[in-house]
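Do me a favour: review this protein, sequence plus structure tokens, and tell me how the chain folds. Record follows.
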Amino acid sequence: MKRLSARPRTPRCPIDGLTRFQTMLSIPSPTPVTISIGVAVWPNDGQEAAELLARADHRLYVARDNGRNRVEAPQFGEMTQAEAVP
């Protein structure tokens, strides 16, 4: 009976996976990676999925405009009333 080879080792954290991905693509390391996130809260930011996505998308662009690599979410006081999306 033939033995199956061991499964490839799974990265322990996302950084390990990113490093392997960079190596596979021959991307110079370290390549700067940033993340910007826009958060919408149900039900205060909208009742329907489209409303929530629009609010989260708006906040994503606010995060990017404010310097990237940040999260934009409603402040504690804002959670009682939805803000107007342009």
About this structure: Residues 34-78 form one domain. Helices lie at 14-25, 49-65.
